[in-house]
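Page 42, continued from yesterday. The earlier attempt failed because a stray header line got pasted into the input along with the sequence. Redoing it now with the clean sequence only.
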Amino acid sequence: MAIFRPFKAIRPTRDKANLVASRSYLSYSDETLKEKLEHNPFTFLHIINPDYKDKIKLKGVEKFKAVKEKFNKFKEAGFLITEPSESFYVYQQIHGNHSFEGIIGATAVDDYLNGNIKKHEHTLTAREEMFKSYLDTTGFNAEPVLLCHKENTTITAIIQQYKGTRAEYEFTTTNKVVHKLWLVNNTDDIDTITNAFATIDNLYIADGHHRSASSALLSETSNKENSQYFMSFLIDENQLNIINFNRLVKHTNGLNPSELITEIGKSFTVTKKGNTTYSPTLTDEISMYLNEEWHSLIAIASTVKQDCVSKLDPAILSNNILAPILNITDEKTDKNIVFEAGTTPLSEIKNKVDSKEFEVAFILKPIPINALKEVADNNLSMPPKSTYIEPKLRSGLIIYPLD
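This time it went through. Structure tokens are written below.
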């Protein structure tokens, strides 16, 4: 069973929600970040960049203490309020043709530790420790972990019920994404949500592996009740938009185009597709752009191991081309490979190769949710940068207090 409970959130006042909520600060260029900080006094970016005007930047715990101080100033100024009663939050995000709907609440660290919350990525110990220190020092978490679950008619029904009422927040951000949020503070509805999730055996981390791991670390050293839970956004797995990550490589390891194709042909059936952009659709198919021409690469069956990780397209590419032919053995650290989310148009990728910024590009298919779950169910990890999963959530819209 999944333990899911309401909490007293700290959140922006209704009139400032659109101004406070921000994307992850890592997603902004330096120029855009500076513009946001200088022209929007309410953005949550001020809290996580309290020293942006200082010539000498703070680091580590000193930086985290300044974050907490700025956070408290936002509360004192009335930009942020504390919910008077424990609540869940129905949240909807509309992005293009996709509508993502789910519930924000607190999930139990115990479920993460006992395997009821399943993961599909390795986490880095240093990042876990850093974020644990951040949580411990600041006393809040401002971005929920994205968890998915199997379809549940009771949960769907209560979300639809609240969607028929006036939203507490409703705004559109500059990237043309619509955000809506409803408060669920009715005790009967809270019980309905809690009991519905109790019937679900497993939750799967879609985004937020390090945040989950860091919360688990914090729970070991903190005796505060809220530290035994972490904020999450629970969504029907069928609503996730799983996008591929493509690979752009800066060299061909000394091989000319003909030689590279010959080497690839030992493990793949290679078919030329001309100059028109070509996306893979077939089983075990990858597309390649090389020397101003697109190619279809279909892995020869005998070269593909059938365990749940090795049969994924990123692993097929790594095991048969990147490592043995291009000598890229550690995709996490090798500076000769760049990952481009499938949201980047193929025409743009083509231009990057034509300009010789890169020598070759490999286009992969999105990985289906069942394949992701199979990896998690077997306690294994996906290859690096296998998925780009939407929705991407905003920081500061709902804040989970740890103090």
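Notes: The chain has a mean pLDDT of 95.
Reminder to self: strip header lines before submitting.
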